[in-house]
Amino acid sequence: MPGARRALDVLGLGENSLDRLCVLDALPRSGEKLPVRGYAERPGGQVATTILGCARLGLRCGYAGAVGDDHAAQLVLEPLRKAHIDLSHVRTLEGVPTRQAIILVERDSAERCVLAVRDPRLSLGVGVPNRKAIASAQVLAIDTSDCDASRWAARIAREAGTAVVLDADDSTEEVLELMCDVDFPIVSADFAESMGEGGSLVRALRKLAGRGARLSVVTLGNRGALALADDRTIESPAFAVRALDTTGAGDAFRSGFIWALVNRRDPVTALRVANATAAMNCRGLGAQAGLPKLEELEKFLAE
């Protein structure tokens, strides 16, 4: 991490969403009709949620993303405004709807299925945020929703000494190319299994390290996380909580990880903090409802 203090701890570039959550007794099979046991409309989106989580942990944050000129955009951005996150790099596109999603949550397991609705015109574009903004942050958090924008920003970040954290679910050629400019890739189990020979998670982590990662991580849901640091494998167990909804668990994991990164925690501690943040978020309905404040996280870890 850079030694000099910068204007922001973390700048996020990527997805936001207005989520409509339906709580069901069980996820539906084809042709089935089921009663909805609970319904809520909540803000979400991968990077927007991660950045909000960072702000709640006390980090100085900025967010860059694309929204439409609709009411959904106001609902999505309102929690970020209330958290005093810099939104000067948000791009509003006329005549384009803000990303939305229908999320089906299974009541007993808290597992969910996401049905995303994203207009292909909803793009931040290359060059936003600008070079100065990227260089002003200690960490750049990106996703793969707009690979061109993420790749450009990651390359600028590398030149500026800004650490790059990536959220990735799909191992496409575009994403693998993006990996070459990422310091801390945090990928899903599906991503790692498709990349590793014979589905080996450790082989996948080594491949990511070969592309330049300083610490590569795969999230494993209720099994915690697995990471590779300096060719050392680290297994970090999940925390047992009474989960209501797993939506946003990975995004919250990244919030905790980035907090630990900014505060120069060692990899074992960083993963423990990340797993705790993810577990706490699963206690609320929606991607952002359970994101903890720093004092709440510290109390949870102490207990």
Q: Could you walk me through the main structural features you see in this protein, from its secondary elements to its overall organization?
A:
The chain is an alpha/beta fold and 303 residues long. 34% of the residues lie in helices and 25% in strands. It is built from ten helices and 14 strands. It has helices at 46-56, 71-82, 131-135, 147-160, 173-178, 189-195, 201-210, 249-262, 267-281, 294-302; strands at residues 8-13, 17-24, 38-44, 61-64, 66-68, 91-93, 100-106, 112-117, 137-142, 163-168, 184-188, 215-219, 225-229, 232-236. An eight-stranded mixed β-sheet has the order 4-1-9-10-11-12-13-14, with helices on both faces. The chain has a four-stranded mixed β-sheet with strand order 3-2-7-8. The chain has a two-stranded parallel ribbon with strand order 5-6.
* Uncertain residue ranges: none
**Number of helical regions:** 10
Kindly state the mean pLDDT as a whole number?
A: 95
* Sheet with the most strands, sense and barrel status: 8 strands, mixed
Shape designation: globular
> Could you say which structural class the secondary elements and strand pairing correspond to?
alpha/beta
- Order of helical and strand elements: EEEHEEHEEEHEHEHEHHEEEHHH
Work out the radius of gyration. 18 Å
Question: What's the number of extended β-strand segments?
Answer: 14
Distance between the termini: 30 Å
Biggest sheet: strand arrangement: 4-1-9-10-11-12-13-14
Helix content: 25-40%
